[in-house]
Amino acid sequence: MAIAVYLLERCTEKLNVHLTALLILVTSILIYALRRRDFSLPPGPTGLPILGNILQMIPDVHVKLSEMGKKYGDVFTVHLGPVPVVVLNSYEAIREAFVHRGSGFSGRPQTFMVDLIKEGRGLGMAQGNHWKEQRKFTLGMFRQYGFQNWDSTMESKIHDELENFIGELQLKENQPFDVHFLMGSAVSNITCNVIFGRRFEYTDSEFLYYLKLIDDDFKHYARTVFVNAFPCLRHLPGDLFWYTKTINHFQKVKDFVGRIITQHIERYDENNITDFIDAYIKQMRQEEQKNNSDTSFTLPQLQDLIWDLFLGGSETTTTTLRWALAYMIRHPDVQEKVYREISMNIGTEQPSFEHRRHLPYTEAVLAEIQRLANIFPLAVPHATTDDVEFRGYVIPKGTMVFPNIYNQHMDEDVWENAQEFNPMRFIDGDGQYYTPKQYIPFGIGKRVCPGETMARMQLFLFFTTMIQQFVFTSPNRGGDGPSLKGHMGITISPEDFDICATRRVPNASQSDIKLPFDTDMTNFDALADDECYLPVGKIESEARHD
């Protein structure tokens, strides 16, 4: 009996050894096959078996890619698990690919999560004729709603929402509070007004619930890169990679949008088109009358398109405005200069988008905030639409492409002392606002952000109106104010922080103002109470992406 047991154990050991050897052999063959498949790609750093370069790019992938670029040049390849990604690390490479070779680089990558959720619908990740058709319609509707005319309906919608937002700030005067979801509600309401034809109260619990779902997904989406590389990880317990939450959150928001679309269908009147959904329904019915079976104008497409418009407009604009407040609190001298320029050029008049040409320093401050915040450091990933010859390499069809926007905005050869906050780098010798070609916060080429004009209008009007009417400070007495180190998700967002908003006193003279502390600042138009602390003196900017 003992001999039989011994022989069985020996056979089992040999079987385990053989299985292990077979597994190693199969893995090696797979890795070799993957390497052979992309042998024509630009060279890059050597990665680990199976994982590729994933661990080398944690935690701040955009920073790590910039460092890799110093060794591997303007164009190189990394691997997210088995997935090759071509990185464009210089402005010249990005422009050559996206502008001069735009058709070949205008695709979107086929990733597991996006394919599962969107199925090729929407606008942001759509491709081919579907994308062209939806983009043409969307931009046409934007123009109809005045995004191309500064005295139009669109600016009026923003001003209407600003009135509500400013009213809320006044109610919170001298009380420390987190502006995050108040700002998000205000910005989202502008999108809601255009798309749904209505706004939501800032206290609407259902509306806030969906905003928080979207915010959570933005913060944690970086985790899903592992599921995109290795879809089998979605089966692990605990939802470590945010797979289940992403799917559930998307479906909940989609159902919410679906209910609003249904309401529009029930009351639809082709002679009374009042918003984006009405216009889309009209287009759908026109396609039905043509018996166009290949049309991209469908109800599921409309739901996903609205999702993209929210993500691409509301969330990103909210994040940028939160960064703007963080930088103004950390740099009260700059905040005061912006106010002085506004006061001298437009006084107490309501800011309009046309006022930009009279406020070059204010424009420069907004540009510097966007440069340093880098909320979309790698933009939205592109993909090749066919096999593309590029700089001596052949990039296969469907290859993912990252434009490293962060590296363009932090290049020391372009921006002296790039880590420092200095709006004057956007002011020319004549005192006018200008932007170097490397400043591309909205991307370039065929896939440039379709809502760029709307975003610029919202940023300018919100920022100028806030600074015109309030002094923004930190409630942390003696502290430095908000952290300037961002959190990497879909975008780079600031950590949550409290602010104090104190109303300015129009036309107050210097003798009317008594500062309760020593400072190199002058002419603050209002004072904070005991809870709200005005930072003293000039605070040096900290490097955000160590």
UniProtKB/TrEMBL annotation:
UniProt entry keywords in alphabetical sequence: Heme, Iron, Membrane, Metal-binding, Monooxygenase, Oxidoreductase
First-listed, main subcellular location of the protein, grouped into a coarse class: membrane
Listed GO MF terms: heme binding; iron ion binding; oxidoreductase activity, acting on paired donors, with incorporation or reduction of molecular oxygen, reduced flavin or flavoprotein as one donor, and incorporation of one atom of oxygen; steroid hydroxylase activity
Listed cofactors: heme
Official protein name in the record: Uncharacterized protein
Protein residues bound to heme: C449
Lineage, broadest ranks: Eukaryota, Metazoa, Spiralia, Lophotrochozoa, Annelida
GO biological process, one term: organic acid metabolic process
Subcellular location(s) per record: Membrane
